[in-house]
Write a structure and sequence with these properties.
By secondary structure, the protein is of the alpha+beta class. The chain has a single domain, classed as Nuclear Transport Factor 2, Chain: A, CATH 3.10.450.50. About 25% of the residues lie in helices and about 35% in strands. Strands 1, 2, 3, 4, 5, 6 and 7 form a seven-stranded mixed beta sheet that branches. Strand 6 and strand 7 form a beta hairpin. It is globular and about 45 Å long. It starts with 5 loop residues before the first helix and ends in a 15-residue tail after the last helix. About 20% of the residues are buried.
């Protein structure tokens, strides 16, 4: 198998994310990949495919449906910018359309750094209270403080 281009690595990662294939993440990120939700700050990052999957389950695990909407992707060497959006459908019926700008760094055909930029207030104003309350008791074993690394 030939090495993936940075663009192929990012598109492959987002294909498994769209399917909420948490086990498939390991095929697309490095063992030391940092996932950093920029609005939350670097202290709420996750590191490595197992913990990234745990982190994503916190947000998406209780959704009735999730869909990533493909957008503009620009690659410059190992750096890949991906403008896209996500639709979150909550079990209580609320639907949120959330725009993202995601910056990736790719090493050896896998994503090694993933930074998501999105509007925190758009999420909290649309998400039902039940979902937000669930965050207070969610698994936090994935927490990784990436301060100084991102």
């Amino acid at each position: 198998m030939s090495e993936r281009t940075p663009e192929e690595a990012v598109r492959g990662l987002w294909a498994v994310l769209n399917d909420r294939d948490y086990d498939g993440i390991a095929d697309w990120v490095t063992e030391d990949c940092i996932y950093y939700d920029v609005p939350l700050g670097p202290a709420f990052s996750a590191r490595g495919p197992v913990d990234i999957a745990k982190r994503l389950r916190v947000g998406w695990g209780e959704l009735a449906a999730y869909e990533n909407h493909d957008g503009t992707l620009v690659a410059d060497g190992e750096d890949v910018l991906y403008e896209h959006s996500e639709t979150w459908t909550f079990t209580t019926g609320e639907v949120l359309h959330l725009p993202f700008a995601t910056v990736h760094k790719v090493r050896d055909g896998r994503v090694s750094l993933w930074r998501d930029y999105w509007d925190y207030s758009a999420l909290t104003s649309a998400a039902p209270q039940e979902w937000q309350d669930g965050l207070l008791t969610a698994d936090t074993s994935w927490l990784y403080d990436a301060t100084g690394e991102v």
